[in-house]
Amino acid sequence: MEYYALDIDRSRKFMNVVKEYFPKLESQEHEFTRVGAAIALGGIPAKLLKENITENKLLAVEIVERLIAVVEDEKFVQWIDARVAALNSVERIISKVGITNFDISTVFSCLKRSIRDSTKTIQGLVGQYIRCAAISAYVEFLPLLEEAKLLKQESLDEIISLILEQCCERTDSLREFSAFQLRDLLQRHVLSNIVEREKLYSIFVNQKDIKWSVDAFEPLAPLLNCEFYHESILRGFINSIGGETGSWTQEKGLFKLEKFYRNNPEKANQLFQVFLKIFNEHQERLSQLLVPVTAFGRLFSEGCFSQIEQEPEIYPNFVEIVKRISKVC
């Protein structure tokens, strides 16, 4: 690669070689063809990535755009290895070239969709590998944006909330990976504007004996009382209680929610608002409603909201959820 970069003619030849990988990213025959192309493009040295492919466009930008297309290719959503390879290469390329050279809003939109990916592997792991790749990229990019003074507070707030949601998700290894990534981010001390930073630091850094793959619900339950993060924690709990997972995971999450709302019945409307948000987000994809509907049913079967069942009319959000479920059924 360095050889081709020595003069204009050799650089042009190198560009022609690189462009041969682009059609391979779109292969519809073999997933490994996409995987190989994504990995190869991610390994190009920074000096060459900074070459202009057109008058106003870096090679790196063109490659990242094509890699994002691989991640979001709905026809081949089950090609998880290819999508993960593409996300990993996006992270590598942006880190090497510099985040200021890219349309970060487009990149972050892809990562936001990826961090809630619901593609199930043959092992039954829902979205795990795609989500982990998205979290890794977020954790890499946040300090770079902060250093470049381009990090918006609303972006930081949203990303921390999204990672927190994964910390109490249904898959053991995903919870552990997410918690470790958030811990590492907090320990860097570069993102001073993280909301409730001290509270998060006390959970993820100071409590060194937490086994996140075993029980994330116990250490994160106090955040149900946190005005800023309660929605993220509730989303994770809902996915764990209503998803296809081990009964012990469901029971642990269910027990914590049951205990919290029995002690804080006045906060029940917050939970119902989150349920309604999830319903609104997936109203065109009914298959995605199975998890929240199941979680909702399990909460009430445990008698968490006996008072609400007796006087449902004073809880309009609850009534609306029941109407939505009836309509779906």
Spell out the blueprint of helices and strands.
Elements: H1 8-19, H2 21-25, H3 31-42, H4 46-49, E1 52-54, E2 57-58, H5 59-71, H6 80-97, H7 104-114, H8 128-147, H9 153-167, H10 172-187, H11 197-206, H12 217-220, H13 230-242, H14 247-263, H15 268-281, H16 290-301, H17 306-310, H18 316-328
Antiparallel strand pairs: 1-2
Q: Which key terms come to mind for this protein?
A:
about 325 residues; mainly alpha; two-stranded antiparallel ribbon; 18 helices; disordered N terminus; TBCD_C
Number of strands: 2
Rg from C-alpha positions? Answer: 22 Å
Mean pLDDT: 88
Catalogue the unreliable spans. 1-5
Helix content: 55-70%
The coarse silhouette is elongated
Which assembly state applies to the chains in this document?
single chain
Distance between the termini: 59 Å
Strand order of the largest sheet: 1-2
Q: Give me the number of helical elements.
A: 18
Sheet bearing the most strands, described? 2 strands, antiparallel
Give the structural class. Answer: mainly alpha
Describe this structure in words.
This protein has 329 residues and is mainly alpha-helical. The chain has a domain at 1-151. The chain has helices spanning 8-19, 21-25, 31-42, 46-49, 59-71, 80-97, 104-114, 128-147, 153-167, 172-187, 197-206, 217-220, 230-242, 247-263, 268-281, 290-301, 306-310, 316-328; strands at 52-54, 57-58. It has a two-stranded antiparallel sheet.
In short:
The chain has helices spanning 8-19, 21-25, 31-42, 46-49, 59-71, 80-97, 104-114, 128-147, 153-167, 172-187, 197-206, 217-220, 230-242, 247-263, 268-281, 290-301, 306-310, 316-328; strands at residues 52-54, 57-58.
